[in-house]
């Protein structure tokens, strides 16, 4: 295709090309430069004649030339996209991108270099590089944090497993010890009974009575501990439900408790019919624990009131005392083993399993225990459970 | 440890003595292509890449180990043990000359002779010693390496222009020649140019040929003369050459000088 426009001759094109053009010997001696290249660096073309190209570079660029792109030009015959800082006549640096080829002639080889100003791109690339380094730094930090977190989790798991093992071991110890203590205590009780049957001086009789009371108390504690062991290590407290009258069971229990606590005013009210299925021994134990608790912590000048109720298939046995109000914060933990609400220390006190066992018995009957405590209504523990196993608590 | 894989060890030719070629900072063993073939008929020639360079195993790069030239010297020592047969002559360029001197000190007597191409025991001027560089020059180099980070990263596909008149050569070199992981290149640059091995070479009695370019920015003639004075059994040979790669730009001048120097070991070959 022809055109009427004047095509620039090669000389014009070389001098005014929109890139710097330089021809050197293999040693880097500058043979020719174009006008643009000289303008970019602030030199006259004649000033650059006979200079070595590397002398136009920063020191870093000169080392880089010797160690990187000079060998490449030699071996590969070309380089591409080498970034160089050139020195302007006034001392500032001008960043350029270099492409170069080696052209062999009979008399030797020339290096033909094309250079493009790339100051803005260089700035951008440096920003990219610094962003990349920043990102790598952040990644390293994140990895380190994750590693530490994993380690902590592992440590925590190990500590948890260890404490679990210790807890199980401790509970088994309690179970074994309380079981093994039962027999010697029974022997002590029997021997005491037998001794008490003979003629005894008043002092001996009094000592024997002490022994009997203490071994009874120890037996109660052991029984509680065994129940705890059953609930925790075994399959829970077992109950054998059979048909019974709720009110009679509670009444029988209250009668015995009146003998055991002669100074306390223990009352009993019954509401509704009493036909239920329950484990009478366990319910008596439940009532006994709650009453003993009321004797220990209630107001000794106020009555302890038991109310047995059978309504809509639900059996309830509430025990009320007038001790100091139990704070809300203590209610949650009150049924846990080894919990004591008061600092009192006397004969009625047990090992702190009473309420725990009350709740376990209620649970074994398919029910639970509720608790209210205020100045108007006093403190009321109310175990409730379905009257028969087929009934369900709503 | 698979040395062959780690250091891309290649073995060429055969002879009663072994020449081990060790490249310097920048590029890889390919740069010996102009020189090594001259020796394969009379010597066993072993070439390798430093870990981090060329086709070495980059995963073997341990920034702790290679934070000093001693790490590279340990590698060289292992390569000598595994690949050398007969007397060992180390042909080393630039910083590798000092790696070789350290390996020599490591197992005295193991290296029979050195051929050092453009060696320098210390690049930075200090006191009366003229190494040719100031500390800020090295920082300027690190800056240039940084600025070429994107272009020279080995993860970027190489862009190679055609080499007019030498298509075969350009084809041979379209691989990772001269490319390194930028972070490795920077550490190697720092280790190379910041090292001072003057105490290590002082009084080294191993016969040494110093091939010194008449004009070399990296290793000026004064440095060659310093080494010649420090090495009692050395020969200083000035190669008429501009630049740091006389083995590439003036290979025959180099091989001529080496032939004379290597005669005692090449001569023992039967037939």
Can you tag this structure with a few keywords?
heterodimer, A: about 400 residues, alpha+beta, Beta-Lactamase, Helix Hairpins, Heat Shock Protein 90, five-stranded antiparallel beta sheet, five-stranded mixed beta sheet, 12 strands, B: about 270 residues, alpha/beta, Rossmann fold, 7 strands
Write a structural description:
- The complex is a heterodimer of chains A (394) and B (271).
- Chain A is of the alpha+beta class.
- Chain A folds into three domains: 10-117, 2-Layer Sandwich (Beta-Lactamase); 125-232, Signal transduction histidine kinase, dimerisation/phosphotransfer (DHp) domain (Helix Hairpins); 242-386, Heat Shock Protein 90 (2-Layer Sandwich), CATH 3.30.565.
- Helices cover 49% and strands 23% of the residues of chain A.
- Chain A is built from ten helices and twelve strands.
- Chain A has helices at residues 10-16, 35-41, 45-48, 59-76, 119-197, 202-232, 246-260, 280-297, 328-331, 354-364; strands spanning 20-25, 30-33, 78-87, 93-105, 108-117, 242-245, 266-271, 275-278, 304-311, 314-321, 368-374, 378-386.
- In chain A, the strands form three sheets. Chain A has a five-stranded antiparallel beta sheet with strand order 2-1-5-4-3. In chain A, strands 7-9-10-12-11 form a five-stranded mixed beta sheet, covered by helices on one side.
- In chain A, a hairpin with a 2-residue loop joins strand 4 and strand 5.
- Chain A starts with 9 loop residues before the first helix and ends in an 8-residue tail after the last strand.
- The model of chain A has no long low-confidence stretch (mean pLDDT 87).
- Chain B is of the alpha/beta class.
- Chain B has a domain at 3-121 and 197-266: Rossmann fold (3-Layer(aba) Sandwich), CATH 3.40.50.1820.
- Chain B is built from eleven helices and seven strands.
- Chain B has helices at 3-6, 69-83, 95-106, 135-147, 149-152, 167-172, 182-194, 198-201, 221-230, 246-249, 251-266; strands at 10-12, 18-22, 44-48, 88-93, 113-117, 208-215, 234-242.
- In chain B, helix 2 crosses helix 3 (95-106) and helix 4 (135-147) packs antiparallel against helix 7 (182-194).
- The N and C termini of chain B lie far apart (37 Å).
- Residues 153-176 of chain B have low confidence and may be disordered.
- Chain A binds chain B through residues 26-28, 54, 58-64, 66-68, 70-72, 74-85, 95, 99, 101-104, 122, 125-126, 128-129, and chain B through 24-27, 30-31, 33, 94, 133, 136-137, 139-152, 159-166, 169-170, 173, 177-178, 193, 216-218, 242-245, 248-249.
């Amino acid at each position: 295709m022809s055109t009427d426009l004047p095509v620039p001759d090669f000389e014009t094109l070389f001098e005014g090309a929109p890139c710097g053009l330089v021809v050197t010997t293999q040693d880097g001696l500058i043979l020719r430069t174009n006008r643009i290249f000289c303008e970019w660096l602030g030199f006259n073309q004649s000033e650059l004649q006979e200079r070595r190209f590397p002398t136009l570079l920063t020191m870093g660029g000169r080392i880089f030339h010797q160690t990187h792109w000079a060998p490449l030009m030699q071996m590969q015959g070309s380089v591409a996209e080498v970034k160089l800082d050139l020195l302007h006549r006034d001392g500032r640096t001008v960043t350029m991108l270099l492409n170069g080829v080696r052209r062999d002639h009979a008399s030797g080889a020339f290096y033909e270099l094309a250079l493009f100003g790339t100051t803005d791109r260089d700035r951008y690339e440096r920003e990219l590089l610094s962003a990349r380094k920043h990102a790598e730094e952040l990644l390293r930090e994140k990895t380190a944090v994750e590693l530490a977190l994993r380690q902590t989790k592992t440590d925590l798991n190990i500590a948890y497993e260890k404490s679990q093992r210790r807890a199980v071991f401790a509970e088994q110890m309690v179970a074994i010890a309380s079981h093994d203590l039962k027999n010697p205590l029974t022997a002590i009780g029997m021997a005491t009974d037998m001794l008490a049957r003979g003629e005894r001086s008043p002092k001996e009789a009094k000592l024997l009575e002490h022994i009997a009371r203490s071994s009874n108390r120890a037996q109660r504690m052991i029984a509680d501990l065994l129940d705890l062991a059953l609930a925790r290590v075994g399959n829970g407290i077992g109950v054998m439900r059979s048909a019974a009258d709720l009110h009679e069971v509670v009444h029988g229990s209250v009668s015995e408790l009146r003998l055991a606590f002669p100074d306390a005013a223990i009352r009993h009210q019954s509401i509704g019919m009493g036909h239920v299925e329950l484990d009478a021994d366990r319910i008596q134990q439940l009532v006994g624990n709650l009453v003993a608790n009321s004797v220990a912590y209630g107001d000794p000048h106020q009555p302890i009131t038991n109310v047995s109720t059978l309504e809509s298939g639900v059996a309830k046995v509430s025990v009320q005392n007038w001790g100091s109000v139990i704070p809300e914060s203590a209610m949650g933990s009150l049924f846990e083993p080894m919990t004591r609400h008061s600092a009192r220390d006397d004969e009625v006190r047990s090992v702190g399993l009473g309420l725990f066992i009350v709740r376990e018995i209620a649970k074994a009957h398919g029910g639970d225990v509720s608790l209210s405590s205020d100045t108007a209504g006093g403190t009321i523990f109310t175990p409730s459970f379905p009257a028969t196993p087929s009934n369900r608590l709503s | 440890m698979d040395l062959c894989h780690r250091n891309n060890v290649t073995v060429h030719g055969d002879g009663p003595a072994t020449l081990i070629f060790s490249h310097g900072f920048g590029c890889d063993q390919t740069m010996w292509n102009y020189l090594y073939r001259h020796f394969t008929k009379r010597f066993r020639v072993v070439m390798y890449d430093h870990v981090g360079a060329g086709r070495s195993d980059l995963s073997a790069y341990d920034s702790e180990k290679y934070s000093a030239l001693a790490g590279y010297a340990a590698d060289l020592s292992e390569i000598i043990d595994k690949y050398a047969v007969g007397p060992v002559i180390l042909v080393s360029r630039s910083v590798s000359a000092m790696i070789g001197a350290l390996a020599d000190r490591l197992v005295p007597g193991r290296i029979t002779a050195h051929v050092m191409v453009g060696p320098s025991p210390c690049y930075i001027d200090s006191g009366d010693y003229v190494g040719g560089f100031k500390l800020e020059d090295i920082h300027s180099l690190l800056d240039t390496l940084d600025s070429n980070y994107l272009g020279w990263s080995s993860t970027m596909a190489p862009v190679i222009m055609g080499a007019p008149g030498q298509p075969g050569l350009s084809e041979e070199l379209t691989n990772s020649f001269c490319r390194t992981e930028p972070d490795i290149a920077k550490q190697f640059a720092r280790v190379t140019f910041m090292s001072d091995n003057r105490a290590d070479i002082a009084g080294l009695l191993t016969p040494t040929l110093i091939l010194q370019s008449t004009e070399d920015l990296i290793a000026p003639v004064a440095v060659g003369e310093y080494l010649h004075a420090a090495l009692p059994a050395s020969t200083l040979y000035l190669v008429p050459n501009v630049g740091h790669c006389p083995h590439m730009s003036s290979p025959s001048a180099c091989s001529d000088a080496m032939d004379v120097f290597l005669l005692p070991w090449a001569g023992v070959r039967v037939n």
